[in-house]
Amino acid sequence: MTDFPGTTGLIFNEPLLWEKGKKGRTGFSLPRRDVASYPLDESITGDGPDFPDLSEVDVIRHYIRLSQWNFSVDSGMYPLGSCTMKYNPKTNERQASHPGFAGAHPLLPPHLSQGILQLMFELEKFLVEITGMDAASLQPAAGAHGELAGMLLFHAYHKSKGTPRSKIIVPDTAHGTNPASAALCGYKPVPIKSNEQGVLAPKDVAQVMDEETAGIMVTNPNTLGLFEENVKAIADIVHAKDGLVYCDGANMNAVMGIVHMGDIGIDVLHLNLHKTFSSPHGGGGPGSGPVCVRNQLEPFLPVPRVIQKDGHYLLSIDFPQSIGKLHAFCGNVGVLIRAYSYVASMGAENLKKASQLAVLNANYIKEKLRGTFHLAYDRPCMHECVFSDKYQQIHKVTTLDMVKRLMDYGFHPPTIYFPLVVPGAIMIEPTETESKENIDLFIDSMNAIANEAKENPDLLREAPKSAKRRRLDETAAARKPCLRG
Amino acid sequence: MRYLPHTSEDISEMLQTVGVQSLDDLFSSVPQECRRKNELNLPPALTEWELNNHIDRLAGSMAVSPEYKIFLGAGSYDHHIPESVSYLLSRSEFMTSYTPYQPEISQGTLQAIFEYQTLTARLLGMDVANASQYDGASSLAEALLMAVRITRHNKVAVSQLVHPNYRQVIKTYFAPSGYEIIDLPYSQNGTTDLSNLDNLEDLAAVAVQSPNFFGCIEDLQAVGKKARNQKALFIVCFSEPLAYGMYKNPGSFDADITCGEGQSLGIPRTFGGPALGMFAAKQKYVRNMPGRLVGQTVDADGNRGFVLTLATREQHIRREKATSNICTNHSLCALASSIYMASLGGSGFKELARLNYDKCEYLKDQLRKAGYSLPFSQSTFNEFVVQFPEGFDTTYQDLLQKKIMAGLPLECYYPELPHHYLLCVTETISKEDMDRLVGAIK
Q1: Does domain B83-340 have CATH number 3.40.640.10?
Q2: Beta partners for B279?
Q3: Size of interface A-B (CB pairs under 8 A)
Q4: Where are the alpha helices (DSSP H) in A370-473?
Q5: For domain B69-82+345-441, which CATH number applies: 3.40.50.720, 3.90.1150.10, 3.10.180.10, 3.40.50.2000?
Q6: CA of B3, closest CA in chain A: separation in Å?
Q7: Is ipTM > 0.95 here?
Q8: pLDDT tens string A106-115
């Protein structure tokens, strides 16, 4: 029998922070007091926060125990579609925590911050080259922030032409953040459906594209893991009405060194540095969502921008058409350093190889599991493939049951019930950093679960059994919210 | 390449399974017209050791303490960070995990964020805090948008003493919607002048920052009263939450929303990011809040556990009707601040706040004795404004040569304040450093 990584071991219980501790303890080395105490205005001073007092040992043990209740990329495979949970290189952490960077105040004058400005300048150039766009801003703090930046750029562009627009086309295969980002800019999303092949048809775009419509938001490769093969024709239709094409670049990991986003008619594209460019997800962030644009949108990019003048780097706000600032300072610089470190370590050849291997891994899984699970679109996929629970429904077993059981085998579940166009979707993105052995084990686990669905479906319905907690009552949590202790 | 595990045998076997000849053939669905015509043009890949040298050189050019004495806050503060914070944060299980959508195997992150929400709510004196926003600026922008949704009014009044960069970000967020931002001027004592407020109508919110950009403590009692008279939400913003270790928190003045920047709670400055957007509100507004929330529940065995909850507010469920488009937030930064707050404890937090205050008062005292004017009389925390004589710009540059940064020149943000500088003193600055600064200015 295969030795799956999932098992059980001694996992500790741990109370909430304020259920431990005792007044009089501390976990902090209070700096020496070398000045006298000054009088206070008692009318505006308070009692200070009601925090528990803990020793350093209390704090360390508390969080180490909590950490052991988490799954992570460093402990196992995370085939989470559209999230690109690739390995996070350790050298990136060393570079980002360098005291020269970590200790740098954001308002240092340029002559005292040349190093970080040079890094940001060069990273912009890297991202521009990798995407095939003309200019970039590193300021957006996350993917959705990058989308917002993109929509603000659309808005500024049409406003500058004296023809502000009110609608935007959003396909059913787009990420969930897209409509929300568009709405923040006052755009009414116009949904369109993908065709039987899982991609957009130019005629469907032509039908809704008009002079009230700012443009279209496409995700390419889309959330079915398919390349939008008509993207160029679609861009032509949108451009003919002076609309703009936004590409959600969350899936850029499939096409580095392969697709030139500028040549296929994309006007704005955001990247997720915490996906394609290997910075860690941190349990939900911080990420970074740079926006890359074609020349005609460059004047509108957020300020400040890093510029080079007489061999020196400067932060400039002298861009009168700019949409303005999106972040208090220059964005998530710590994440930018990690992405820079990644590109510098990989080089052109390995970035392309990464995309090729990501696509190879996904297609391999698709071929190996196609008999066992229903394949939503039977076509060559890019970096992810989408199955459904159609074959397992006769056993009264759902996608949710199957992926919860996957935890017991030692794997993180894939993305489920997304994209919405596939009922009971199971969206698998292995990424390039998983070896053939790991992928084979994952495939064996999925096959074993499909057998269990037939033979012992209760195992799935009751899963997971070896995690810290069994299934949680999410309905009760929402009905009577307890959001603090 | 050490991150790519495939051997050539692996690749051949896998290609065979897929049924294609080469890696290039995998991309048959990408039309020729969409392909790159040239290979990527990037610098040659560096070895781990070459990269270390390269980064050492870049980072070595930065002016940082202890070599430099930086008397500069303005929204980014230098505080000692206990080694335990950095050590715990580097745990792979926190650092390399995803958003906790699968609660059974994410209880570590979920409990830690539930604790963060609790400590944040207690610090700010509010009912409920979310799991984080990007930074102080985006937190305030989201707070104002939330007030617009709740009140259905489309005008907000924002103090000129809110961090100038935050105000820039608000403008960007508000530009397409056409919502109006009314600037509230400041008065002679360094706090917001509220006299204009009485003449305004249909306000969604009144927002002030305390301590404000000049370091002064706002009269939150008065602001709250004016906001309520206008039936507008009362929003308090902050960039230095350590101040609430000593001063009354916004909740004690019945603020509706409190939001701001949490960088000073155990997060390195890193040239301004990643930082931590803190966001808290009254319970009655919880369903209008942006961002993720962690809630307590039980599992199938009845054991206490935690899940992401009230997701129907969020973009992936509500789409264009969501309360915000935020998805990825600053979870790891929230964790850092939690570990920091837990390490200090209530007693330590209070003591550290007092030490910041006393150090700052010492420098104010020394500058006054040396004959410089401190134009704003209102109480401050660890930052304050000083007016230097004309021609101080040259001294400022001389001091930079001596590796002392004597605060932030305010003129580029407030043209009416030439020769005014914003100085900051935290516990990382010693009495000796301050004496040296005052001596060097003379």
Answers
A1: yes
A2: B259
A3: 691
A4: 399-408, 436-455, 457-461
A5: 3.90.1150.10
A6: 6
A7: yes
A8: 999 999 999 9
